[in-house]
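Deviations from the work plan: none for this task. Representative record:
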Amino acid sequence: MYNIALFGAGRIGQVHAVNIADHKETQLYSVIDPFSQGTAALAEKYGAKQQSTEEALADPNVHGVLIASATDTHAELIELAAKAGKAIFCEKPVHLDIERVRSCLAIVEQYQVPLFVGFNRRYDPQFRKVREMLSAGSIGKAESLLITSRDPSPPPAEYVKVSGGMFRDMTIHDFDMARFIMGEDPVSIYAQGSNLVDPAIGQAGDIDTAFIVMKFPSGAMATITNSRRSGYGYDQRIELHGEKGLLTAKNIHENAVEQWGEAGCVAAKPEHFFLQRYDAAYKAEWTHFVDVLAGRAQPECSGYDGELALLMADKALESLKTGKEVKL
Amino acid sequence: MYNIALFGAGRIGQVHAVNIADHKETQLYSVIDPFSQGTAALAEKYGAKQQSTEEALADPNVHGVLIASATDTHAELIELAAKAGKAIFCEKPVHLDIERVRSCLAIVEQYQVPLFVGFNRRYDPQFRKVREMLSAGSIGKAESLLITSRDPSPPPAEYVKVSGGMFRDMTIHDFDMARFIMGEDPVSIYAQGSNLVDPAIGQAGDIDTAFIVMKFPSGAMATITNSRRSGYGYDQRIELHGEKGLLTAKNIHENAVEQWGEAGCVAAKPEHFFLQRYDAAYKAEWTHFVDVLAGRAQPECSGYDGELALLMADKALESLKTGKEVKL
Amino acid sequence: MYNIALFGAGRIGQVHAVNIADHKETQLYSVIDPFSQGTAALAEKYGAKQQSTEEALADPNVHGVLIASATDTHAELIELAAKAGKAIFCEKPVHLDIERVRSCLAIVEQYQVPLFVGFNRRYDPQFRKVREMLSAGSIGKAESLLITSRDPSPPPAEYVKVSGGMFRDMTIHDFDMARFIMGEDPVSIYAQGSNLVDPAIGQAGDIDTAFIVMKFPSGAMATITNSRRSGYGYDQRIELHGEKGLLTAKNIHENAVEQWGEAGCVAAKPEHFFLQRYDAAYKAEWTHFVDVLAGRAQPECSGYDGELALLMADKALESLKTGKEVKL
Amino acid sequence: MYNIALFGAGRIGQVHAVNIADHKETQLYSVIDPFSQGTAALAEKYGAKQQSTEEALADPNVHGVLIASATDTHAELIELAAKAGKAIFCEKPVHLDIERVRSCLAIVEQYQVPLFVGFNRRYDPQFRKVREMLSAGSIGKAESLLITSRDPSPPPAEYVKVSGGMFRDMTIHDFDMARFIMGEDPVSIYAQGSNLVDPAIGQAGDIDTAFIVMKFPSGAMATITNSRRSGYGYDQRIELHGEKGLLTAKNIHENAVEQWGEAGCVAAKPEHFFLQRYDAAYKAEWTHFVDVLAGRAQPECSGYDGELALLMADKALESLKTGKEVKL
């Protein structure tokens, strides 16, 4: 049984707490979050301790840490945990500044601890099945990938200001998905964007609607379409065209009930947002991390993957500003 | 080029007129309908004559007749046309009284003219594909058939009174469909029904909602569900379960546009009614009849098929009244 | 925290064990199953005791019992638990013999303990939503209900022999569903059946394919179609037609990935069987039972519901044998 | 009754001949095609004359011309017909060279004859419904448009060489669709492409797979994804995202039959190619042109629309070569 110290008792920390407790090889050992009012309650629910960062990292009973705290604390916590010799599961991103990411990863490299970066969508059963069916040759060679990623409604402008911008905050998941599905890194990126959803986002210097085109060494291409607001729930789909046909992962809907009447045939919307849609993905990524803890696997989603997704976001931003495709 | 005399210039007569004119081997030669105000216009549109019944049947230029007049004229027109040696396409039913059907068919037999009874749904591309896939072995042996047949809205009570009742008027198509798909005749029929849609239908002595169960010599079974009103267009579906799986013919919808929003995912209703839904079927049955005219085929849908579908309706009515399954 | 004694450590007992443990108000207190080799492992996993029937029922710490043992032990265990004053959750059926059911329920009545009978499908989110939308008036008055219930593959003939027959073993769920959706009890039942799937089932005196028609006091009707083998997974659907349209609960599929190619558009099969399909229903019925334990609710699914579903199965069997609809 | 002279007796000419003959206000008066072996047969089928270009344009009985001949003859025939005062329906494109298009349109302007350019997809009922629902406010303001357009299989390299390249030959339809749906002209275009389908296409100097991104004055954006080969029929879809949700026009499939079995749920592929898919669109555009002939309408799809779609193709090609978005 592996003991896990959880950094961050917020919404995403609570999701991980359930999965840590439910897994037969892990238990929630301690919760570290001096800023949250829910820390004590969360710890109590699972019979866990409350610790300080220093206590947790110095505690020899802690086998692994899960970092689900505020984004700007990730890099430092990774470095401290690496120095303490703990296995690390960190929510994306490592940091919003790529140089800081690189210096952090250098520390991880130096201390030789496993680091898993939580690009949870790689563990969505739908997207994973597309990847597996591609690998199994079901559509031949991949040629065109279309990623649709739309949030149900826009975040507050206050969040946008500290988010690093849409590409680093939201599209970064899609950049990673493109690499995951295609199995190669892009050679060029073009981005176009607009502020259409909420003027406050534009005033914060960001966009809320984007189209991105990438080209890969094989000649294959991918596009990402993003919006901060769909109007119909969380829209998370991919289409992968290959030599012999198409693999498409459709949305998961709220239910399977249809109403047919004068107004037509009405089905339910897609699941509302990531907590619902990616519930299975959060469980599956934790299962993978337990394999890493147990030495049965290497992190499938590494610090390097985090770095590259951020680099793609940076290059997309450069393209948006210059109107040119940018080489990687 | 075969010359066709069309009896009946009403709605269904007009559907056939288009198909007669569009087929490269037939032309509309004459229209016979003393009761319709549209007879002259229909004849003029296609450069056809207006004739009386006597003129048409005595005219050696007429190769075939299409009987689309009022139901109670079918049997007599069939007999007259048979005696005149014309090939006959008759809209269902031959007659609402089975003894009258039998005497009529005896005349047809005596004069050896081809008679096609227009169970148009056999020519619907969806249902025909199910039949073909069954024959090709795609689901093994047929076991359970479910026929859904619901009209968009109920007919006027005046119509109901002269219709012969729901089973002879509406379900008769589904009885024929059951025989067409299963390739065998039922050995028993059970029917249950209610007057739920329009009290005037009940006052006219009829039902408007029905469930029918049939058993076949192979042990396979079929059910028909009917309603005079769906609330969402014309509902025409079948499900055929076999040893290895299911074949299902779904509705044809008004269009392929979906709207996703707060209210869910809204798609179009099924096609409104038979003129829209069975447009391709009307064309295809005429193509078959031209093959009959040209001696390239025997009528796939014969007077006997008309007789048997009516017999099934009569037996269903007996079951409805007695609460017992009735043997055939 | 309520302590639960679980009778039966088999497949379905294990499903309940997880839900008992996951619910924040209940814990698995003891497991009683002298015949299973997995009893010790199950108890250990959740930190529960192993007890005998006598020990569990005499233990004042036990607040409720969950009976998931062999069918022929249900009635006796219910009686013993009732006499011990425990709240009871019992898997369906109470017993295969209706007189035995009635005598058992009389004991429950005498000792005034809450009894919940586990017709889990009432807690399936899809079916429940149909019921809720009907209640909310979305399609007006209910008129026709179609229940499709097909197992992926037939049980062994050995099981069939002790199952009480298809109607008491399998269709009983659909009988309960018909009452749950329609909100009224049928006045007549007709059943037709065949042995098509496996000759060994016929040799065991049972059928494996059935069509059932019921009529309700309102004039509404329902049909159930059953097969012991679908060929494509677990087929669990309902269609409810009303004055203003249709509510339909479709299958839940294994995933949301489609492959489009020369062979057409291929989507995943329905979930394999009840453990997958009704996972959410098992959780939800437990949540309801905890409300019963806590005095916040009366059992929505009572002994009387169990009795009536069995009565409907008995009447269907009578109809199958006599070829007549049977009055209730 | 308007007499129509048809230039070109090939595949697309034959499609138009049927629609000319079926429309109640037009008849096929003459066919002009000295190069086709099918000219005489086509003329005979509809009781039409064979004429030379000179004869047809000098014939005062000819009210309109339909130009469906080889692409490189369009501009000259338009000019001749304009000078002869005939109303003109011309298949796209006017010409592959934009300067030649402009000089041709100047002649049309000078002689004041109506010219309709056959961007048939504007008349597809699906796409038209999206346009109408947008206009009706069903999703608020348009924000993102995704056009998917994939041919079932690539053309021969010989065709590619004279086609003007993928953008002018295939994508031109999608450029026009973007303008039709959005109701505004793009301000910038970016294109990325590859030769993935057939090396012979690359050797002919062309691409066969493309992604295009456009931005509009309102800030809305559109993307087009093209491939010369889908592997699953003709893929013709659009998604239009707006403030309040999504309108999506899905493919039309070969039939509505599904097979459920061990391999999953198999539905039919999309209609094979444009003759099947756009059958209704060809009919509807002819109906519009008859309105133009009758003075009831102005051409909805003008020479200017043809010019602008070609300009977009030229700009896309420039972007493909330079790696920059190009301003319009």
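Chain D touches chain B at residues 22, 24, 45, 125-126, 129-130, 133, 138-139, 244-252, 255-262 (CB under 8 Å).
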